[in-house]
Amino acid sequence: MAHIIVLGNEKGGSGKSTSSMHIFAALARSGHKVGVIDLDLRQQSFFRYLENRERFVARKGISLPMPVRAHLAYSTQDSVAAAKAEEEERFTQALDTLERECSFILIDCPGAHTRYAQMAHSAADTLITPMNDSLIDFDLLARLDPDTGKVLGPSIYSEMVWNARQLRASAGLKAVDWVVLRNRISTLNARNKRRVGSALTELSKRIGFRVIPGFGERVIFREMFLSGLTLLDLKDTGEASLNLSNIAARQEVRDVIKALNLPDVTIKF
Question: How many domains does the chain have?
Fold first, then answer.
């Protein structure tokens, strides 16, 4: 069976699409065929990133790794029960189709709670929650006491993940590996950075996730969207020089892939 990786965060702007693209590129360059689903059916940022990549490849006449895409749509059934059943069937069929030819399936969830996102979280073997390194974004995971900084309790999103894990357990499936990816980490040892780190450490012990460093605040990550490129493509395209900042960003990608502990993945970039 394919290993299912889900990127979920109910707040926008956390870097889900950028993280999805770089994880896909790393898996593809490690020799795996990757299937992808973009569950943000309104904005489709992940798929637009891939469309930009297709246009870039055609314009430049070069070859770059591409995933297998599965497209979904919301049900138009009048009945809530019928709509739910139809969307569950569509999601299951999409996974079955991708599993026939892919060893990894990567699902990018929207910055909102939807039935599709709920199903994706229940299907995840690895759940990655990218979050900006700030107390505002920490609110996605838990509520903090404003005076002491202590964790008061889990958020609605954390409770949704807990319910998804219970569904997996009841189905006899392996426990999900939940990873919180700290994005846009400041290079300064700021007070806010320390408070977020302490709160994440406390919360991780209570509700069971791992914390790993993600991607720094770098212009290169924003610039590559229009060409559909990742840092792993730069040597093949010559679109940007491998200066010290880009080399450091490339190492961040390597560190993320290594920390995810994905099965049968050998870093080849």
Answer: 1
Q: Tell me, yes or no, whether 184 lies in a domain.
A: yes
Q: Is residue 236 part of a domain?
A: yes
Q: How confident is the model at residue 189 (pLDDT cuts 50, 70, 90)?
A: low
Cα gap 121→127, rounded to integer Å: 7
Residue with tokens 């709160």, as numbered in its chain: 199
Mean pLDDT of the chain: 89
Burial environment of residue 201 by CB neighbours within 10 A (0 to 12, 13 to 18, 19 or more): exposed
If pLDDT is split at 50, 70 and 90, which confidence band does 244 have?
confident
* CA geometry: angle 98, 103, 105, nearest 5 deg: 55
The answer to the question of residue 164 being in a domain is: yes
Confidence of residue 241 (pLDDT cuts 50, 70, 90): low
Q: Are strands 126-132 and 142-144 parallel, antiparallel or unpaired?
A: unpaired
CATH number, domain of 112, equals 3.40.50.300
267 part of a folded domain: no
In sign, the C-alpha dihedral spanning 244, 258, 108, 32 is positive
What is the structure's pLDDT at 197?
81
* Neighbouring C-alpha atoms within 13 Å toward the C-beta of 42: 5
Helix (H) or strand (E) holding 256: helix 244-260
Range of the domain at 88: 3-260
**Phi, psi dihedral angles at 231 (to 5 degrees):** -60, -25
Residue 96 pLDDT exceeds 60? yes
Q: How far apart are the first and last CA of the chain?
A: 25
